[in-house]
Amino acid sequence: HKERAQRYQSVLELSTDLQRYLSRRAISAHPPSTLYQIKTFIHRNSVASLAGLAVTALALSFVLKLLDQNHEIRTEFLRTQTEKQNAEQISLMVMNTLGVANPTGVKSKGKASVESMIDQTSASLRQNQKISPDFRVKLLVKLSEAYRGIGNVTKAKEIERLLNSELDSFTPVLKVNALLTLADSAELDTDHYAGLRFAKKAHDITLSNNLQGAILIQSKDALARAHILLSEFDEAEALLSSALSLINQEPTQDKTMLAKLYLSLADMAVSKGDFARAEDYYSRGKKALSAQYGENHARVVEVEIDEAQLLIQTRSPKATSDYIENLRNKIIEIWGEDSSNANLISYHLATAYKATGNLGPAISTYRKNLASLKSQNIQYAVLNIANMFGLAGSYLEANEYKKALDIAGELHDLVTEENDLGVKFTPYQVAMAQRQFGTALAANGNFEDALVYSDASIDFIKDQSASAHAISLSLRAYIYAMQNEFDSAKSDIEQSLELVLQKPDSHRDKSQTTLVTKALHLYIELLASSDKNSLAKLTELWQQYTEGLNGNTVEFPYSEIGKFIEHRSLQAAKY
Predict the structure, then answer these.
(1) For residues 508-534, b (16+ Cβ closer than 10 Å) or e, as one string?
(2) Is pLDDT at 477 greater than 90 in this prediction?
(3) What is the value of pTM for the model shown?
(4) Pick from 158, 193, 200, 157: which is nearest to 179 by CA?
């Protein structure tokens, strides 16, 4: 693979990366996805929409059964073109309603009955072979989205396999639409190579069949996103430039596709660590959508949510708690207080507090968010996981190690144990939970178990992201050092430093990451010896690092370096 953009250097940025995954934005830890699942399906919907889904699913099932039970009526009904168009419009309305389920992996009130309705619809669709291919594709797509909406990924994949198996019976346009859906689903499952295959096949079909207009632009954008997720930026940039050229050749009043391309360019800029350019593309995307819909339209606010995440990640002065609160008020006005977007911006607010070292407000906001999600019966949402991850990280920074262990253990159990919804978490989510649990165990002095979970996390991460790999190696180096296995510790920390130095020079905080990794290297050396010169150098490195934090807190295990220096300084003062 080509060299990957190296993104985060801290537990904070890991938490941020989970949020990127939720927003359907590229992440750095798993080459490099994001805040994906939530944005894809729920930015515009609330948990209450499940009631509408139940009614709609039942209606669709009833319609399909009627069509099956009375062939003569169906034939007569579809005899005239006008009546057929009316039927298709009704079907389209049903399908659109199917798409409004709240897909956060929820365990919602009435979820079982909702799933039963979707099951009936699925069974009727499988039995009814008289539906036109056009509407069969659309119905299969909506059923996939509906199953993902209630968190049943297993059944969603069954529908997607059915969709894939029927590709050859579709027209080129239907085939492209189906493949783009399969590409999106693969990305949701962080199977980025499958996503690339589906997106490439869709793009190849548009070219071989000389398909033009929106579908060609969409296929280029989808293929570009797939390349971005694999850090193949040259290919992505060429595709997005080509798509922008097509739009400029035939400008239209609809600016939605133009905005989408700008947002894909923003994703790529974030993945490359070029945050100034990312802000520029977000601004262009907002401008295009504002021209289309107005400044306070929901689609514009959605971009502002992603922009807020970027501002937090880059510790921009704009990313104040007041700014996030104002955006949250706007979101509540549009979607409601219990909406997914309100939950998402509340997570951003907690992360903003954490990023600026305000750990008390961060902890209380994370706890409030988790209580709110629990009251909505949202147990298996990725957003729920992100809040738990952020809370555990905040406790670690606040030196409340026992509380961090409790939350990290709960998080680990949630993503690794079977659940009654059939929700299966991605290897990336499992690996991050393993590392967080290992970190909390180490902070509490349980180095033997910490090593087990650290090893398990590294086994997955080492082939996926150099940035995440470096962090995991640093943690394991610390654990080895605490067990007096200094040769293993030195080997890990040297590998970690080598990976850190591979970061692009333009990457944010590369110098900070280098400083803290070098400091950890010296710290391990000093644990094995008592070299006064090394202690002086370590003190100097640590001072440079902490000055660059601008008052922010230091995360475990790096915080142990400061304690070590203070302890040695006190010892030296005594003598």
Answers:
(1) bbbeebbbbbbbbbbbbbbeeeeeeee
(2) yes
(3) 0.65
(4) 200
Tell me the torsion sign for CA atoms 301, 303, 306, 308: negative
Distance CA 145, CA 156 (A): 7
Distances, alpha carbon 248 to alpha carbons 198, 245, 253, 262, in Å = 27, 5, 12, 13
pLDDT in tens, 487-529: 999 999 999 988 888 766 545 566 777 888 888 888 888 888 7
Evaluate whether 475 touches 438 at the Cβ level (below 8 Å). Answer: yes
| Placement of tokens 């609160």 in the chain | 325
One DSSP character per residue, 487-514 reads HHHHHHHHHHHHHHHTS-TTSTTHHHHH
* pLDDT tens by residue, 217-255: 999 999 999 998 887 889 999 999 999 999 888 777 678
Residues contacting residue 333 through CB under 8 Å, at least 6 positions apart: none
* Rounded CA separation 127/64 (Å): 9
Place of tokens 């509540």: 332
Q: Prior bond to 557 cis, omega within 30?
A: yes
Compute the distance between CA of residue 22 and CA of residue 344 in angstroms, rounded to an integer: 9
Q: Are 461 and 29 in contact (CB under 8 A)?
A: yes
- Answer yes or no: are the C-beta atoms of 64 and 121 closer than 8 Å: yes
- In the chain, the largest separation of any two C-alpha atoms, in whole Å, equals 101
Cα–Cα distance between 228 and 5 in angstroms, integer?
Answer: 10
Cα–Cα distance for residue pair 32/26, rounded to 1 Å: 6
Distance (Å, whole) CA 11 – CA 400: 15
Q: In sequence order, what are the residues at sequence separation of 6 or more whose Cβ sits closer than 8 angstroms to the Cβ of residue 370?
A: 384, 387, 388, 391
In this structure, the number of other CB atoms found within 10 A of the CB of residue 486 comes to: 16
Model confidence at 333: pLDDT above 80? yes
